[in-house]
GtrA-like protein domain-containing protein (Litchfieldia salsa), 163 residues
Amino acid sequence: MPVFKSIFAQTSLVTTNFQALPIGSHVGERTYYIFDYAAGALSSGGGGGLAYFLSIQITIAIAQIINFFAQRNITFKSTSNVWRAAFWYVIAYIIITLGAAATQVFYKDPIYNLLINTWEMGAFGETTADVITMSINSTISFWVFFPIFKLIFKHESVKQRTN
């Protein structure tokens, strides 16, 4: 993710606001979004804009493509139809991504604020916050995805596949 983030940081995407799917607000306070990437660099109090959103989503997409084949072929040794499994995997990926993004309302801002502003760690704090938030997101995804994998990646006998 830091590689994509540094590439996109050199574009105007950092100053492009990306806030989608509002999920509520407190009276007199700001609206909370599932995808909340306000314009501006994280180090200056912004949300990273569209650049940060794309950095995260491209990183996760690459990881999920690799993960699909690793889980299907190595972990579960699935013999089910690859296209059916891929379809359900994408559906699960979209639902889990939305759910994991919604939970960021609780931890993303406090982590970045602590590491960048309170502890005044600057760029190192930002990178550390990136790693922490991605780790939390990965953990949520793992605990939700793994039971779903058991349904998606079935081991069918030869007799079942020929019917």
Summary: The chain has a mean pLDDT of 86. The longest strand covers residues 18-25.
